[in-house]
Amino acid sequence: MARKKHTRAPKGVSKGLSKTASKVAAENPSSSTPAVDINAPMSADSLTTAYALLDKDVAQDANLLTPDADLDSNDSSSTTHVIAEEKKKPTLMSLPNEVKQNIWTMAVFLEEDITPMQIAQRSNKFVWSLDQCVSPGTYNVSAVPPLMAVNLSSVCKAMYNEVSKTHLFYRHNKFNFSARPGDFKTYIVGLTDARRQSIRYMHVELRPNWRPEIKDSMVLIASCKGLKSLDLSISSASNLDFHALMASPEHKHAYAAVQGLKDLNVVVSEVADPSIAASFTAFKNDLAASMAKPRTGYYNQKLFLEIQVTAPLDVHGEGRLSDDKKPGIISSRTRAQKVAMKSLDAVGVRPPRNSPKYDLDGCLAWDVLAVLDSRETGGDDGSAGIEFEVECWVKTGYFRLYSSEGRKEICWEDASVLGPRARHHVVNFYRSNPEKSGLEAVYKEWLQQIDGEDENPNERLHHLKALKVIASQLASAKDLAAKAETKANAAAARNARIQELATS
Predict the structure, then answer these.
(1) Which residues of 15-37 are buried (b: 16+ CB within 10 A; e: fewer)?
(2) Greater model confidence, 278 or 20
(3) Of 113, 261, 263, 266, which Cα lies nearest the Cα of 176?
(4) What is the pLDDT, as a whole number, of residue 38?
(5) For 282-299, how does the pLDDT look when each residue is reduced to its tens digit (9 = 90+)?
(6) Which residue blocks in 384-456 are alpha helix, DSSP H?
(7) Domain map (residue ranges) of the chain
(8) Separation of CA 109 from chain center
(9) Residue 389 in 3-state DSSP?
(10) Of 120, 117, 77, 107, which is closest to residue 169 (Cα–Cα)?
(11) What is the DSSP string of 42-72?
(12) Distance between CA 371 and CA 389 in Å, rounded?
């Protein structure tokens, strides 16, 4: 889908200003800036959400005139006169503030919706167009032209103050989260309060089967004080009385999300059950009734803080401009957290902290996903051993017990360090590959380990029994193979003897 051009002006902006804007732009070609490099180093003030702003001021137009080559250099009065005439010409920044604000609004407005997508796990940077999504988790920022809000804010400090600090980008564009519902919480929490409250147009999708997500989404919508228009998409859920759910005390605050809205469009996917359809209809009627109440900006701040804690972000909105990257969360102010925040990368993510490979008992601490192969080894004392090629999952999050972040690693490990949690993977490996070496050695190793273990005796005995069954099956298979080989050899010898007698 190609990026659309600005074909219409936002509400409240005169279209007649386009000619003025074009003329001013033609007279000031230096106002155009190249695209912002996402990997460029950024200061604290430049770590903004949805677009990264450069904090290095570009020099303003000096309005200096370079004299022609044939101009008499001694004619200082003539040069001074020409410079004075040039300075009398109006410039873009000399226009009245009302006119400039209209020009900025037309420049930052986009015909298509803004679709925020987080560029990396726990990052506070987002791309803004589906065209930038090359594949799931892979983004090409240069796939579409840079935002005009970025270019204008990078020209000079005065223009930055007039474009960025007035939050025109958020006030006049529609933010659509229907394509990536999971990024809604991440994006809203990643915004500063002023920018979040400047958003006026939004499209959010609710998934009733995810009940905590519904509660969080409604609280986040309510926190957008300046919201005027909301498109709400609700995917149907079988056997769910949505109206009763939203009327429960747990969700009673949800209706504050639509108070004072001028436009509300609720779309529910087709529901076959008449009772469920009636439930959605009643819910829409309650939303319409709540719209008549004024939008005071009230929202459940306790729930909002809980959402901030669980949001997959290393830096929250207000934390972009302070040393405390997660204001309001006490645990972010510890010495260790402050040290970790000093190593943020270009996209606002702390470097991953790897889990230790071995625990205090010397066992493999990584989660074993599968056993891929085995091989025999020899110890320093001449004893035989066995090693397994294992595929592991290494958690890298700072809260590794509950983290889903990590990477896969493949390594060779001795059977003695795999530990009890990996035994069922070893059993499954030998079930699929009974001819692989090491089965008897593993059985003896486990017998020695079990003598010193006190937990889960039934599970250990189950693993030993499974290995014993596999060993028995393997022995039977070898015996059958030996008998078949003996029988084949006897048949071959008999045939050879018959041929020998026939030729003699």
Answers:
(1) eebeeebeebeeeeeebeeeebe
(2) 278
(3) 113
(4) 39
(5) 888 888 888 999 998 888
(6) 423-432, 439-451
(7) 17-67+75-307, 367-485
(8) 25
(9) strand
(10) 107
(11) --GGG--SSSPPP-SPPPPP-------TTS-
(12) 6
| Contact assessment for residue 152 and residue 104, using Cβ atoms and an 8 Å cutoff | yes
Give mean pLDDT, residues 409-425: 87
Compute CA distances 214 → 116, 307, 429, 483, whole Å: 19, 12, 43, 67
CA distances from 183 to 29, 51, 97, 304 (A): 37, 16, 36, 16
Residues in the chain: 504
Q: Please give the helix or strand (H or E) that residue 282 lies within, else none.
A: helix 274-290
d(CA 297, CA 466): 63
Distances in whole angstroms, Cα of residue 49 to Cα of each of 44, 171, 365, 371, 495: 12, 14, 37, 43, 85
Query: 3-state class of 8 per DSSP?
Result: coil
Instruction: Using the structure block, give the residue that is written with the tokens 């300046």.
Output: 226
Instruction: Give the CATH fold of the 367-485 domain.
Output: OB fold (Dihydrolipoamide Acetyltransferase, E2P) (2.40.50)
**Three-state DSSP state, 175:** strand
Task: Spell out the residues 6+ positions from residue 396 whose beta carbon is closer than 8 angstroms to its own.
Answer: 352, 353, 354, 355, 403, 405, 406, 407
Predicted model pTM: 0.58
| CA atoms of 250 and 446, how far apart (whole Å) | 51
Determine whether 379 is exposed, middle or buried from the number of CB atoms within 10 Å of its CB (0-12, 13-18, 19+): exposed
In angstroms, rounded to a whole number, what is the distance separating the alpha carbons of residues 487 and 493?
10
> CB under 8 Å to 158, separation ≥6 — which residues?
60, 93
**pLDDT of the residue at 56:** 34
Q: Which amino acid is at 430?
A: Y
Query: Which of the 8 DSSP states describes residue 318?
Result: G
Q: How far apart are CA 419 and CA 453, in angstroms?
A: 11
The closest of 425, 301, 324, 450 to 371, measured between CA atoms, is 425
Tens of pLDDT, residue by residue over 87-119, are: 667 788 888 889 999 999 999 999 999 999 888
- Compute the distance between CA of residue 8 and CA of residue 18 in angstroms, rounded to an integer: 10
- Phi/psi region, residue 419 (left: phi>0; alpha: psi -120 to 50; beta: rest), is left
